[in-house]
Amino acid sequence: MRIFDPHIHMTSRTTDDYARMAEAGVLAVVEPAFWLGQPRTSPGSFTDYFDSIIGWEPFRASQFGIRHHATIALNPKEANDPRCRPVLDLLPRYLAKDGVVAVGEIGYDSMTPAEDEAFAAQLALALDHELPALVHTPHRDKARGTQRSIDVIKESGIDPGRVVLDHLNEVTVAAAKDAGVWAGFSIYPDTKMSPDRMVTILQEYGPERVLINSAADWGKSDPLLTLRTGEAMLKAGFSEDDVDRVLWQNPVAFYSQSGRLDISDKSEVEATFAGNSILRGGS
Amino acid sequence: MTTLDQLKSELAGNERLTDDLRRVADKPETVAGLFPAAGRRYGREPLTGGWTTDEAARALLLSVSPADQVLQAYRYGDTAEKLAVLKALPLLPIGDSGVPLLEDALRTNDTRLVSAALGPYADRLGQEAWRQAVLKCVFMGVPLKEVHRLHDRADAELGAMLRAFAQERAAAGRDMPPDALALLDQLKEA
Ligand SMILES: [Zn+2]
After folding, report:
1. Hey, which of A241, B2, B77, B139 would disulfide with B81, CB 3.0 to 4.6 Å?
2. ipTM for the complex?
3. Residue A275 domain-assigned?
């Protein structure tokens, strides 16, 4: 199985995790800029973090043959802190990088006016820099937050096909599908989504424009839940091609819209499923 | 060593770059958006003398920028950008003001940055810092052939540091890299 984890916070993970991921078939990851669990108090703290996810993490990943890209943004939670907001002025420097393949995570946490402003401003930055956008949906008041995110996305003028709405579940998936955005699912223990629930959603909605990620971070999470979801799909009767589609081809297609995704030496890797290998062309 | 004029003539046909160099000369702050995008804007093809198009274009962009923009390009650079700044340093008319960039690169744990910091511009690095940098190369497994003027600058003090390190390695049952042993031999003979 070849796996592209389109949303994982490697800065919070150990080097052992990289080794386990590589062994499990993870060939590429995207690390979105997000909250670190501990509030930051200045723009400098953000830029050091951005430097790490465009510099140190790609280097660490490369030791295990994993290709690492990032997305850059001021996250919704810290958009509420006036001490952090000036980082918005520094974002254009980072959005010009080769390794930055989207603006994100943007969206809502508590749906405040400050979040409205940062969300709209950063969708405008995505348009300016010809980048896709990764939109986080709130963990509380999720259904209304998702609908409001869709409204803001529509208003911004960005093509919905260049947006992924992430952390969806059974309650919010239909609205995302109707809006024409990509549907992101975080397979995360206890809180967000499980491999078996994911399989049920795939049975109902199909594999098109679906992104599956571990969203592994500093919380109780597991970077191998992408693999577990692939295994659950096969067990439920999905074809190897369906699995490859959601775990590899879809994230490649989504982030390729940036024009900056570099997986040149990864796309030719043979996909292997349950010990059988099938040869496929670059995609 | 390759000069700015050589890079300029190699890239003379790159119209986009020629336009952008003029833009930066007029408005220095525009370099902030152009420098990171160099590979996408001007190409990445190899040139002569071990340069690539994006590296050479980045050196030329820095050559028309004021020193503070050079420092900012490094400060906000990703690894490829930082490497390009380090490579350009000896060609730029900035005196010693780039030395803190070498010190920053030498503090990292990225072998590419550490070795790039030990190019010709490292002639401006003090001897103590330079010795520590060479020892760090041995520790990290960076080949010593990357170090500019290694054999000229290596002194008895570096020899003592390497010998102590070799003893620690021996105690741990680990080998010293052959290039470090060869350097020790050279210092013994001196
Ligand atoms: Zn996240």
Report:
1. B77
2. 0.89
3. no
